[in-house]
Write a structure and sequence with these properties.
The structure is a single chain. By secondary structure, the protein is mainly alpha-helical. The protein has helices at 54-165, 168-179, 203-210, 258-263, and strands at 5-9, 28-30, 35-37, 51-53, 248-253. The strands form two sheets. It has a three-stranded antiparallel β-sheet. A two-stranded antiparallel ribbon has the order 1-5. A hairpin with a 4-residue loop joins strand 2 and strand 3. The two termini are 20 Å apart.
């Protein structure tokens, strides 16, 4: 019969009973595995390991716990207090910095608006001036055309009268007047022209006109403190961390079969 396999559990914080032997109190300590055990474990799970009473281990751990508490109170908590106080200054500086940047941006925007309004006003003034000049030229051209029309009509009436009277001299004079006209058709004036082509994508130009905006985003990244010369770096001590619940970490094959386990 194949030997059954089970899974190695990890004790959760505060657990007082053995996971392998339900109901058995954890009052022993295995030096090799560095974990708690019950009275049945030395004959099964921790067979052949050096096991001692948990009450013998506790006094050895108390000094380390007290030292940790003292260091935390004198160093860590004091330093954290300073950091907490410093956050008030950081908050004020952060508010002041971005309020100042916002004000600068608004001021630059208002300045650009004023310059744009001024440029628009100047251009509109130029348009109005050109419109007025063209209007005067067109009106003068119309008056010249009307005057020319009047003169032609008058001339036709004079020629008609000459034909009706039958005077050879008047007909001759009319012919000479045709060959040498005293008035010519008014010349059409050259009008002032203007054109406006709006930018299809003015955003790039507006960004350049507004100014350069630069940001850095290191928020959430812990600052790296430089090591002072001559100081020794303490290696982190990896301790057995208790999990909030029992987790299976790997497969474990029992060194003994079921029959041998049942006899212990």
């Amino acid at each position: 019969m194949a030997t059954p396999t089970s899974q190695i559990p990890i004790r959760i914080k505060g657990q007082t009973t053995c996971f392998h032997h339900k109901g058995r109190k954890l009052d022993l300590y295995c030096e090799k595995c560095q974990e708690l055990a019950c009275p049945k474990c030395p004959s099964s799970i921790h067979k052949g390991h050096f096991v001692c009473e948990l009450s013998e281990i506790s006094p050895q751990k108390e000094p380390d716990i007290k030292n940790f508490m003292d260091r935390t109170k004198k160093n860590n908590l004091v330093q954290i207090g300073k950091y907490i106080t410093a956050t008030d200054t950081l908050l004020k500086d952060n508010t002041s910095t971005f309020d100042k940047l916002s004000q600068q941006l608004k001021s630059q925007t208002d300045k650009l608006k004023q310059e744009l309004d001024m440029l628009t006003s100047q251009t509109l003034s130029l348009y109005n001036k050109m419109k007025e000049e063209n209007t005067n030229l067109i009106k003068k051209y119309k008056q010249d055309l009307e005057m020319y029309e009047k003169q032609l009509k008058q001339q036709i009436q004079e020629f008609k009268a000459a034909f009706q009277r039958g005077s050879h001299i008047q007909i001759y004079d009319a012919f000479c007047e045709i060959l040498s006209p005293t008035h010519s058709l008014p010349v059409k004036p050259v009008l002032g022209t203007a054109n406006f082509t709006p930018k299809k994508c003015p955003q790039d130009y507006l960004k350049k006109a507004l100014g350069k905006v630069s940001t850095s985003h290191d928020m959430g990244q812990p600052s790296k403190q430089k090591q002072q010369p001559g100081t020794k770096v303490k290696k982190a001590v990896t301790a057995n961390k208790l999990l909030p619940q029992t987790n299976v970490v790997e497969e474990w094959k029992s060194p003994c079969d079921n029959d041998s386990m049942s006899h212990h």
